[in-house]
Amino acid sequence: MRVLWFSRKGDGLPLAWLLSMKGHDARAVIIDQHYSFLYSSLLKKEKKWDKFLTPESVVVFDSPGGAKTAQRLKNQGYRVVGTSSLADMLEEDRGAVLKLVKKLNLPTSDEGSEERAKIVTLVKEGEVGRVYQVNNLTKFLAGDVGPRVLSAGALLQRAHDSFVTKVNELAQLLHNYSGMVSLSLDGEGRVRSVSLHFQYDCIFALDPEFLLTGKEETERGRYLVLLPVSAPPFPFTQKSDVRAFGRPVDAPTELVKAFRIVLWDVSVNEQGEVVTATGLKPAVVCVGSGMTIEESVKDAYSLVEKVSLEDKMYRVDLLSAFENVEVLSC
To answer: What is the homologous superfamily of the domain 94-322 according to CATH?
Structure first.
């Protein structure tokens, strides 16, 4: 299947690459040319992308802002994944969020409340994949050591049946939408926001094949742990969240192809080495899996040991951080 992957800053390119490794003809279009070097030599890029499309092609948007192009392609008969005018509206209009949540008869939190968890899944035209609860950590090492990141570690576990039911109801309300669905929750299980865009604190634990075929081919345990691994930050400046780039990074091919070790912020240098790229995101994400939280955390740390990256940084206390996480209901 031909897959055209639109990405503003290259965040979703590992997913496009995974699809290409599964036999799909996946090509990327990077909107912001400052990031055009990401995944160079790993994934084909398309400039004249309209000539690549065939009637059976699937077009994926991995970031907000592409609703007009997406709608035009839908009108031309292409199957579009990942964005819509509603998706963009939900990012900006709390009133639209409240209206949608009201239709689902879900409790809403106060504006400005703190996120404690997410409910996430992939949807393909009304079909719903596995529904997970995601709990995130927001810094790298224990305490205040290391740069701030989107997620310094995430625990995914099967969501409570009450949320599974509501997500299925939401999928029916969205009609022919295909993409990610995410509900942000406070500590009481009340909905803070709804997003129909990819969430990169957890997307690498999900199977993008579902968006194309409605089938989840990747076998996972009951619990999943995402553990980002980064090059160290530069000496403290006002841009202290920027990490070193251009450092060689490597991992066993079989683990990369199995998407157990995800190469994220990488490119290929003139010597043909895979290296850290922008330094703005973790270079690698390790995906641990197990039937218990302890098993999945141990699995994630065993994968980190197989990542070759000089002075690599990662959170070391995931087990204690996640051992008392409860499953929220609505």
So the answer is: Phosphoribosylglycinamide synthetase, C-terminal domain (3.90.600.10)
